[in-house]
């Protein structure tokens, strides 16, 4: 039995094609054997699905397309810059010597903030990533448990740290991050996130540790 050809998720020209990348150059026309499943994809996601196959293949691809969401005009570099600026303004006079970022999305914000503050960036990583001697904390999430690890010696007892992540949900991740840094003898001045899912009450898990967030969102969005 031959495998069906790969589906192609094609960006809609108006939203996604950038200057010089016209739709005609990127989107081959449907061949006679292709089935255009674009109405569902385009309506819900902005994606046009071209698939050539029979059986339930097309239905499965249509379901996949229905879960894909196109964000018009992404990315937003000004939002990133303003996010960094606010964090830097907040911490620049607080004697911060360490910005610790939680893998993975804390790595988006942490290094840039650290650079602007003249602080060192310390990555708090998922298992099996750090080659040296590590300390480790296990924590629970909405969907199970995980561990984060930090190199021994990355943080020193006189350091003053801010822990950065993209989002606080249940607070388990930040709580583990704070514990790692405090086990090294340093002070965690504050945790900083872009988004808080307030309904999950992550702050409660952090006790008295201050959490600074820019945007509070509920799960319903
Ligand atoms: O407050 P919590 O309930 O602990 O959840 C928040 C964490 O969940 C997400 O990361 P995730 O664990 O999905 O890992 P990733 O960044 O590697 O995708 C998010 O980036 C936070 O780190
Ligand atoms: N509920 C959630 N929504 C979006 N991102 C998350 N990261 C962890 N929990 C999350």
Protein described:
It is a single chain. With 221 residues, the chain is of the alpha/beta class. The chain folds into two domains: 8-66, no CATH class; 77-217, Rossmann fold. The chain is 31% helix and 29% strand. The protein is built from eight helices and ten strands. The protein has helices at residues 13-16, 23-26, 38-44, 57-66, 77-91, 106-117, 172-183, 202-205, and strands spanning 8-11, 35-36, 47-51, 98-102, 120-124, 134-141, 144-151, 160-168, 187-197, 211-217. The protein has a five-stranded parallel beta sheet with strand order 5-4-8-9-10, sandwiched between helices. Strands 1-3-2 form a three-stranded antiparallel beta sheet. Helix 5 (77-91) packs across helix 6. The chain is globular. The relative contact order is 0.11. The model is unreliable at 1-44 (pLDDT under 50). The chain binds 1-O-pyrophosphono-5-O-phosphono-alpha-D-ribofuranose and adenine.
Keywords:
alpha/beta, binds adenine, 2 domains, single chain, binds 1-O-pyrophosphono-5-O-phosphono-alpha-D-ribofuranose, 221 residues, 29% strand, 31% helix, Rossmann fold, five-stranded parallel beta sheet
What's the layout of helices and strands?
Blueprint: E1 8-11, H1 13-16, H2 23-26, E2 35-36, H3 38-44, E3 47-51, H4 57-66, H5 77-91, E4 98-102, H6 106-117, E5 120-124, E6 134-141, E7 144-151, E8 160-168, H7 172-183, E9 187-197, H8 202-205, E10 211-217
Parallel strand pairs: 4-5, 4-8, 8-9, 9-10
Antiparallel strand pairs: 1-3, 2-3, 6-7
The structure holds 1-O-pyrophosphono-5-O-phosphono-alpha-D-ribofuranose and adenine (ADE).
